[in-house]
Design brief:
Elements lengths: L6 H11 L2 H7 L7 H8 L5 E2 L14 E3 L2 E3 L3 E3 L5 H4 L3 H12 L4 E2 L7 H6 L6 E4 L5 H13 L4 E5 L9 H6 L9 H7 L3 H8 L19 H11 L6 H11 L3 E6 L2 H9 L4 E4 L13 H12 L4 E5 L5 H10 L3 E4 L1 H10 L1 H21 L13 E2 L11
Parallel strand pairs: 4-11, 5-6, 6-7, 7-8, 8-9, 9-10, 10-11
Antiparallel strand pairs: 1-12, 2-3
């Protein structure tokens, strides 16, 4: 077993083990992938201030996100097709998150259904909702999440239409994969992945198949989903969904201060500064650059979380020191899942926690409330001097 000391170590194993179309689905952005790259590289521009001769004992990374206790300010982001990265992937990731003490967010486009995950885990998880044109389906989906005792609803706002991801189109992304000659040649080199997948019955979108009239196979499913994202989504509809849910609501996909204020007005419990991991509007700014103007816009009136670009404990530390109350990892835990199943997700969380804890100590801080901008060196004009 190789020694795993970083998220990149897990990524290397993941790339060897998982079929190309699912690796590319995770490890890509839209169009030129500029935003996808800068989500990561912009974190590197921020420096940490080392402090010495400070008491480093008694450290804790524990905090809360939307009032729920967490072992560190990290949640597992909603990632579609997680069950194609490893058999029963959503169940494995949810178990790892629960054992570690951080939230797991189940995607609408998951392979394991809401009911599957609820039946195979012991702690509440969050559910991420894509708004669809089929209002009856959306209403039933919300009720299913309630019945599963999900403890928060995460509404994704930045996928009313699908951004173009060149690799997914070229690979013919589908779940399960279509058996073309090219795909079969690649699958022939991924024996451990294939054997695991043969051992599960969960190989299609579990929240959709069997829950929508006329959807029984992947060909009709892919046509349905491509037509179903709701381009008419607006703040009134978001307010109605929030009221229908009746519990904590997190709005994901905020990248602009005006949208942050609008989210505050509809009563969001938290907003997630996110550009969908660089998978939607290419050419948008990175999430970490967008954080400051959004914090300035909403102050402490709503929790501000951050998603997109987190690959290390230092990234978490920088985001929280800048003012985020929580962060989300998507690719980082997916690398672990694809590499080593549930144990890999646990290892990803351990790697991030250890790096955050040690870096926090070397900055002279012992607890999350101790973190602040004074422990960072942020480049002048980092948040942009843009003409608007």
């Amino acid at each position: 077993m190789p020694v795993i000391t970083s998220i990149d170590d897990l990524k290397a194993i993941y790339k060897r083990r998982v079929p190309k179309m699912f690796y590319d689905y995770c490890e890509s952005g839209s169009w030129t992938e500029q935003t996808f790259r800068e989500n990561v590289s912009d974190f590197d521009l921020i420096r940490l201030r080392q402090r010495v001769a400070t008491d480093m004992s008694g450290r804790s990374t524990a905090t809360t996100m939307i009032g729920q206790p967490v072992a560190m300010p990290v949640a597992l982001a909603p990632v579609g097709l997680t069950g194609m990265q490893d058999a029963d992937g959503e169940i494995k990731a949810a178990r790892a998150a629960a054992d570690f003490g951080v939230p797991f967010t189940l995607s609408t486009m998951s392979i394991c259904s809401i009911e599957d995950v609820a039946a195979n885990t012991s702690k509440p998880f969050w559910f991420q909702l894509y708004t669809m044109k089929d209002e009856d389906y959306v209403n039933r989906l919300i009720q299913r999440a309630k019945d599963a005792k999900c403890s928060a609803l995460v509404i994704t706002l930045d996928l009313q239409i699908l951004g173009q991801r060149h690799k997914d189109l070229k690979n013919g992304l589908s779940a399960p994969p279509k058996l073309t000659l090219k795909t079969m040649a690649n699958l022939a080199t991924k024996w451990s992945w294939g054997l695991n997948m043969l051992g599960t019955k969960r190989r299609a979108f579990g929240n959709i198949v069997g829950h929508v009239k006329g959807i029984s196979d992947t060909s009709s499913l892919m046509a349905w989903t491509s037509e179903q994202f709701d381009p008419t989504l607006d703040w009134d509809k978001i307010k109605k969904i929030k009221d229908k849910w009746g519990g904590p609501v997190i709005l994901k996909g905020i990248l602009d201060a005006e949208d942050a204020r609008a989210a505050l007005n509809v009563g969001a419990d938290a907003i997630v500064v996110s550009n969908h991991g660089g998978r939607q509007l290419d050419g948008a700014i990175s999430s970490i650059r967008a954080l400051d103007p959004i914090l300035d816009a909403v102050g402490d009136k709503v929790e501000v979380h951050l998603d997109s670009g987190i690959r290390s404990g230092q990234d978490v530390l920088k985001a929280v020191a800048m003012g985020a109350k929580g962060t989300y990892i998507g690719r980082a835990f997916t690398y672990g899942l694809g590499a080593m199943g549930q144990a890999g997700v646990t290892r990803a969380l351990q790697v991030i926690h250890r790096e955050m804890d040690i870096s926090m100590a070397l900055c002279g801080r012992r607890t999350i409330p101790d973190l602040g901008r004074d422990m960072l060196l942020i480049p002048e004009g980092f948040s942009g001097r843009w003409q608007v």
